[in-house]
Structure to design on (415 residues):
């Protein structure tokens, strides 16, 4: 009898949400291998998160 | 600024909330540096008002999931009876999100449709794992054996009506097959290693009157412990189920064993992994040959001491230099026995 870790389930659900809006890259190592990526109508979320990640990586950005 | 890492849970939420917190500073910095540091192309990082709105919307969506995840990771004993309730909370959050996205003022926004699709994908993912909770009986048994709820959760609208009877019947069958039938072999849970008190009822087994009552009960079909437990009113005061069962184990000794076995299953792996880390600090390279019993008892005692906020105090007795070897040896033996008895007492009295 396998008991799924609830934390992992929550994380998988959130990862699926972020993949669906193309915020994270689709990975092939999903638990059951059934990665679903929905073609989003706009790339705006991905672009926004790219900007935020870029700001986080800026080394001299001391705020 | 924080950076999101795929292997770290909630890192996307943490990155977005930090960005929201530093919004004014980020905007001001980009505005100031665009001209001064053209080679850095900081104009590419300028975040528009609509994009800030997207960031805030994402943090709002991810917040309840982050809160529940952190809450489950924090507790040292994530209770298995909370799993059904946690799923209900998550599905309610998703319903609220979809209702929010369907509002007219949000529905017109271009990115609202993609968000709604993504939320639906999240619901499907969650549903896939929720369906897997139907077969493992530990979830339903834990809900029933929780004294302040029992079958109350299964009477809610989120559960179909037949589940209440189904889970109750299956739990009863497991109790009868695995715990009640083993009653003659197992020692009831309330017995301890302490010396038994002389009880005036200790002669009940030989009393003809009580034997006659026992025969009458069998003919009448008296309910077993499970039936008695369910028919008793639910615990009104909010109390830790471990504490409740510790007190009431004498009333339901065999059902208490079923409770102990059921609630030994954790809802998450965070607490278990934390225990692995603690054991790693006990079984060091210089203590690699420790017996497994020593390791487990050491972890339990340390955990008990942390909970009671005590410290082991070691007192060194200087003693008299003129003692003979025999007296010194006797004193060492007595001290060793005293420490051993103290250790045994601490192990016996550790929490369930």
């Amino acid at each position: 009898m396998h008991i799924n870790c609830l934390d992992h389930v929550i994380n998988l659900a959130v990862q699926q949400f972020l993949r669906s809006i193309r915020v994270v890259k689709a990975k092939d190592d999903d638990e059951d291998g059934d990665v679903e990526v929905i073609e989003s109508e706009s790339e705006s979320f991905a672009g926004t998160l790219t900007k935020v990640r870029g700001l986080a990586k800026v080394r001299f950005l001391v705020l | 600024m924080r950076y999101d890492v795929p292997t770290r849970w909630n890192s996307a939420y943490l990155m977005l909330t930090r960005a929201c917190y530093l919004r004014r500073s980020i905007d001001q910095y980009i505005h100031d540096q665009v001209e001064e540091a053209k080679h850095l192309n900081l104009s590419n990082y300028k975040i528009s008002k609509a994009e800030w709105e997207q960031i805030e919307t994402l943090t709002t969506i991810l917040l309840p999931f982050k809160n529940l995840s952190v809450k489950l990771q924090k507790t040292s004993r994530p209770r298995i009876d909370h799993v059904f309730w946690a799923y209900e909370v998550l599905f309610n959050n998703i319903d609220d999100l979809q209702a929010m996205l369907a509002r007219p003022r949000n529905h017109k926004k271009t990115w609202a449709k993609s968000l709604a699709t993504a939320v639906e994908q999240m619901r499907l993912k969650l549903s896939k794992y929720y369906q897997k909770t139907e077969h493992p009986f530990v979830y339903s048994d834990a809900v029933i054996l929780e004294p302040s709820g029992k079958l109350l959760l299964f009477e809610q609208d989120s559960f179909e009506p037949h589940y209440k009877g189904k889970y109750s019947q299956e739990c009863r069958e497991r109790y009868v097959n695995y715990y009640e039938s083993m009653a003659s072999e197992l020692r009831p849970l309330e017995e301890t290693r302490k010396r038994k008190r002389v009880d005036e009822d200790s002669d009940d087994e030989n009393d003809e009157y009580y034997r006659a009552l026992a025969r009458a009960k069998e003919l009448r079909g008296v309910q077993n412990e499970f039936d008695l437990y369910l028919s008793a009113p639910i615990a009104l005061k909010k109390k830790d189920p471990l504490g409740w069962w510790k007190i009431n184990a004498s009333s339901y000794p065999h059902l208490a064993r079923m409770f102990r076995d059921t609630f030994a299953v954790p809802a998450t792996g965070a607490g278990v992994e934390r225990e692995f880390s603690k054991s790693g600090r006990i079984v060091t390279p210089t203590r690699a040959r420790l017996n497994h019993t020593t390791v487990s008892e050491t972890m339990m005692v340390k955990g008990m001491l942390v909970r009671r906020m005590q410290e082991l105090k070691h007192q060194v007795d200087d003693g008299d230099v003129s003692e003979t070897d025999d007296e010194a040896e006797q004193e060492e033996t007595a001290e060793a026995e005293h420490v051993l008895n103290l250790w045994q007492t601490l192990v016996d009295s550790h929490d369930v």
User: Anything to note?
Assistant: The mean pLDDT of chain A is 70.
